[in-house]
Amino acid sequence: MTVPAKVGVLGGGRMGGGIAHAFLLAGSDVVVVDQPDALETAEAGIRRAIATSVERGTALRSRSDLDAGLRVTADRTALGDRDLVVEAIPEIPELKAATLPAVEELLGPDAVLASNTSSLSIDDLATRLTRPARFLGLHFFNPVPVSTLVEVVAGAATDPALVATAGEWVRALGKTPVTVRDAPGFASSRLGVALALEAIRMLEDGVASAEDIDAAMVLGYKHATGPLRTTDVVGLDVRLGIAEYLHEKLGERFAPPALLREMVAAGKLGRKTGEGFFVWD
Ligand code: NAD
């Protein structure tokens, strides 16, 4: 199985740019659609990533072939002939709910529409689509070039054959698919946030220092990074937002600890502000 020949990416930001780059490397012709004021940055980022892959020898296609395979435009109708379109616009429910049906209308009957949403329900996003069987979640991880996990999220109406095919596409990208049924937080956020919230409660309770809590997971369970450091990297505000959502959907076990709320209110958001559970230079 190879990747689809013609891929579209809606939203060429951090994730969309990475997704476009991944499909280009794997052999797809890629159209990226973004807003007029974002085109230059989106295109420059993807072409820089192409150049880096060629320099590092990780690209099997030539630089000119890769460059020719990319088009960045503000014209959404350019998605009309795509086999697969991955939506990677901001995580604003109303924006995605309004945009996905408008994109679906442009596509051929066999085309696949996917969302890179990190938290929204695929079933909710599918309610306004006319072909929900051709819609699913493809949740890439940040940064896309180095993250090998992609969650393939099957909505209640998603064609099971499409879920299997999407898994093969992910493998053709050199990544590993994890198939999950549409459920709050999918697999990764639900488990990752559960661990982080317990680690924060342990810190609150004075069980151990942040360093030692993380070391317990890194050394004891071979995690690459401890739950508190990971929370610093993701952003305490981002984690709080997901915890609030999971709390609402899944109940008390996801109630955000007071310490997390206090730190977010104090502007200690992690690496991006220089301080979270650790101090960052
Ligand atoms: P981003 O802000 O970097 O990029 C969003 C892009 O969408 C921007 O380039 C913006 O100009 C464009 N855009 C906005 N409205 C648009 C529209 N109507 N049509 C076309 N383009 C439009 O955001 P991101 O971090 O790349 O996140 C995108 C999606 O990926 C979100 O759903 C997010 O939850 C998900 N996600 C993010 C991460 C992460 O760590 N950043 C990880 C996994 C999934």
UniProtKB/TrEMBL annotation:
InterPro entries: 3-OHacyl-CoA_DH (IPR022694), 3-OHacyl-CoA_DH_NAD-bd (IPR006176), 3HC_DH_C (IPR006108), 6-PGluconate_DH-like_C_sf (IPR008927), 6PGD_dom2 (IPR013328), NAD(P)-bd_dom_sf (IPR036291). Residues 185-279 form the 3-hydroxyacyl-CoA dehydrogenase C-terminal domain. Signal peptide: none annotated. It comes from the Bacteria. Pathway: Lipid metabolism; butanoate metabolism. This is 3-hydroxyacyl-CoA dehydrogenase. Pfam families: 3HCDH, 3HCDH_N. Residues 6-182 form the 3-hydroxyacyl-CoA dehydrogenase NAD binding domain. The record marks 139 as: Important for catalytic activity. GO terms for biological process: fatty acid metabolic process. GO terms for molecular function: NAD+ binding; oxidoreductase activity, acting on the CH-OH group of donors, NAD or NADP as acceptor. Keywords: NAD, Oxidoreductase. Belongs to the 3-hydroxyacyl-CoA dehydrogenase family. Gene3D superfamilies: N-(1-d-carboxylethyl)-l-norvaline Dehydrogenase, domain 2 (1.10.1040.10), NAD(P)-binding Rossmann-like Domain (3.40.50.720). The lineage of its organism: Bacteria, Bacillati, Actinomycetota, Actinomycetes, Micrococcales. NAD(+) binds at residues 11-16, 34, 91, 96, 118, 142, 272.
